[in-house]
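Figure 2 data, in text form.
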Amino acid sequence: MNKLGCLLLLVFCNAAVAEIQTLESSYISNYAHQVEPILLENYRKNMAEKSEQAQIDAAKRMAPKLAKCQFQSVAHYPKKYWEQSIYPITNGEDLKTTANKLETMIYQDIASGEFSEQALMQMLSSSQDNLQNCLIKDALNKD
């Protein structure tokens, strides 16, 4: 490959990496913003002995970590399911609406024979494992 071809390939790859980083950053920001109040509500129930500020601080710390792990947990999804999982949240759609749309898409694909229940179970199990592993890794790497 000539130098110009290599340079063009490098420029294209850099642009693709920048787009993915922007996509991930927007996803994490929007997801964290939406999940923080949910986490705070759970912390209030499960950490009643902690001060209100400690609960708020814990939710603020956990929300972006959870968002990042959630983004990474669906990396193995087939393209159309990945896109339905990521793009709407990146664009500010609420988590529940996005999840409902994804669920509808998957069940329609199962009904049409395009996707199997076994494949769904494997996809969801892998996502859960990926999410748990990410959160454990994060917990082990904390300062």
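Caption note: The first helix runs from residue 3 to 46.
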